[in-house]
Amino acid sequence: MPFAPRLATVVERFLGSPLPVRLRAWDGSEAGPPGGPAIVVRHRRALRRVLFRPGELGLARAWVAGEIDVEGDLYAVLDRMLEPIQAERATPARQTLAAGRDLIQLAGPQLPVPPPLPPEEVRRRTGPLHSLRRDRQAISHHYDVGNEFYELVLGPSMVYSCAVWGEETAEGAGLEEAQTAKLELICRKLGLREGQRLLDVGCGWGSLVLHAARHHGVRAVGITLSAEQAAYARDRVAKEDLSDRVEIRVQDYRETADGPFDAISSVGMAEHVGATRYRAYADQVFGLLRPGGRLLNHQIARRPLPAGRTYRPDPFIDAYVFPDGELAPVGRTVALLERAGFEVRDVESLREHYAMTLRQWVRNLERHWSEAVRLTSAGRARVWRLYMAASALAFERGSIGVNQTLAVRPTSRGASGLPLRPRAWTEAS
């Protein structure tokens, strides 16, 4: 009997619903609705991966290894597959057991031997969670994969956080204009002025500190745990002749002790901090600010969980993308900043903007696919394509969001220095 119809039955039992996309098996057989995009199972080894690690991680390993692929629109496949999963239909236990037995038969005679892990997966993590050593390992896994690869994905701006489209950019503006608008928006929220000191925690490839020094005349310090990012950023600083105003350090926020700063930015970094250390992070940046200084915290957020449920990081992202990364609801972030002593003055959601940004990054990756594979590996490129496409859909569906939180270290008299209507960021502050 052809494999695809049997495999389709297994998938439908697990989903508790009809197969939402076409399925093609390694023997050329097909099943499911005709037309449209298709999931292609290129090797039965993919089934063994799912059996040895049921759920998302097993599927992710098969995807990274190239044993599962998509023909047609990747977004459409992910969207159609997410719908029955997120509907949380309760599949009867007897159906699940029957599907498991069928999957064992389809997986073939080599079942006792687990397939080798794709080399792109995180192998071993040493040290306590969110210790200095372990955080450096996690950051290196994600960011030290080659600056040329990131140039292909991110484009000339080399900004690895969501761009901002809207009134600040012309209609139809591209990614570079939208990223410049985001950098300028941050600088205006921070009220940067000539001669001030700015600390950028998690400075990436230096785009924000360069923009702030060039356009607002600040003296900026950027810190990162990625040696490759730091080298790239220092080269940019030298080329723009800003070495007298911009310093790039390979340094953890916990090791930074040369405050006070007039302003601190933390853009896309706090997701790496972890729930157990977030209050210490908030205390640290509070202590580095002068009274009246501003913090701009730009951070991805998840939805609050129902009562009784425990948060667990996404297994694919934890194993292949952001090891030890954690997301928190925006309310928890605001509460911890307030407990550290900050006065939170503004929270702006940019959820839709991140979906738009991710789709641009996916387009860049797909346009330069052969070069991306050459610079890293086929598996690494596949990790990025899946991660960014799935994340774009998650932002579009509202299951995750991203927020810019502006907070002030209060003065003894309570003055904030903010305009009376804080959202007037295009006006001088």
Q: What is the strand content?
A: 15-25%
Number of helices: 16
| Integer tally of domains | 2
CATH topology of the largest domain: the name is Rossmann fold
Q: Determine the mean pLDDT.
A: 90
Overall form: elongated
* CATH classification, class level of the largest domain: Alpha Beta
The description of the largest β-sheet is: 7 strands, mixed
CATH superfamily of the largest domain: Vaccinia Virus protein VP39
| Number of DSSP strand runs | 11
Structural class: alpha/beta
Strand/helix succession? HEEEHHEHHHHHEHEHEEHEHHEHHHE
CATH architecture of the largest domain: 3-Layer(aba) Sandwich
Arrangement of strands in the largest sheet: 7-6-5-8-9-11-10
Quaternary state, please? single chain
From the N-terminal CA to the C-terminal CA, the straight-line distance is: 72 Å
Question: Spans of 5+ residues with little confidence (pLDDT < 50)?
Answer: 87-98
Organism: Streptomyces radicis
Domain Polyketide synthase-like methyltransferase: 149-393
Family: Belongs to the CFA/CMAS family.
GO molecular function: methyltransferase activity
Which terms would index this structure?
four-stranded mixed sheet; 15% strand; 44% helix; 16 helices; 429 residues; Rossmann fold; single chain; elongated; Nonspecific Lipid-transfer Protein, Chain A
Structure report:
It is a single chain. With 429 residues, the protein is of the alpha/beta class. The protein folds into two domains: 3-107, Nonspecific Lipid-transfer Protein, Chain A, CATH 3.30.1050; 132-408, Vaccinia Virus protein VP39 (Rossmann fold), CATH 3.40.50.150. 44% of the residues lie in helices and 15% in strands. The protein has a seven-stranded mixed beta sheet with strand order 7-6-5-8-9-11-10. Strand 8, helix 11 (278-288) and strand 9 form a beta-alpha-beta unit. The longest helix is centred in the C-terminal third of the chain and has 20 residues, at 378-397. It is elongated. The model is unreliable at 87-98 (pLDDT under 50).
